[in-house]
Amino acid sequence: MKTEHLKKNEIDIAVISNDEKIIVDAQSALDLVMTIQYETGETKIVIDKRVICNDLFILSTEIAGEILQKLINYQVKVAIYGDYSHYSSKPLHDFIYESNHGKDFFFVGTKEEAIQKLSST
């Protein structure tokens, strides 16, 4: 796992990338977040969509909801960047829309957008 630490607008942000899937269920997401918090103290995390299992984007698996709830419980804000254009599920599009209009969990196209989103919340 590659972790990049940066500061934008006086806000510390961790940026996570990897060649393999890191988040495969709610527990692995929580483990990642707790590791980042323990090692850096950062509570704003940018995640490359490629490190997340595809099941997160199938809402009937309930993984997305479980992860979102854990992040909110631990007061962690996350922006996931990547291409979402190939998903045709209306519930997923609605979930992404609602998340992007909230304050804790965001889906954006690029790493730069993710950093901007977290540095302005």
Can you tell me about this structure?
The protein has 121 residues and is α/β, with parallel strands linked by helices. It contains 4 helices and 5 strands. It has helices at 26-40, 63-73, 90-100, 111-119; strands at residues 2-8, 11-17, 44-48, 77-81, 105-108. A 5-stranded mixed β-sheet has the order 1-2-3-4-5, with helices on both faces. The mean pLDDT is 93.
User: Cα distance, first to last residue?
Assistant: 26 Å
Report the radius of gyration as a whole number of Å.
13 Å
Helicity range of the residues? 25-40%
Order of helices and strands: EEHEHEHEH
Main sheet summary: 5 strands, mixed
The level 1 CATH classification is Alpha Beta
Oligomeric status of the shown chains?
A: single chain
Count of spatially separate domains: 1
Number of strands: 5
Shape: globular
Strand content: 15-25%
> Which fold name fills CATH's third level, the topology?
Transcription Regulator spoIIAA
- In which order are the strands of the major sheet placed? 1-2-3-4-5
Outline of the structure:
It contains four helices and five strands. By secondary structure, the chain is an alpha/beta fold. The protein has one domain: Transcription Regulator spoIIAA (2-Layer Sandwich).
Q: What is the element layout, followed by pairings?
A:
Layout: E1 2-8, E2 11-17, H1 26-40, E3 44-48, H2 63-73, E4 77-81, H3 90-100, E5 105-108, H4 111-119
Parallel strand pairs: 2-3, 3-4, 4-5
Antiparallel strand pairs: 1-2
Helix pairs in contact: 1-2
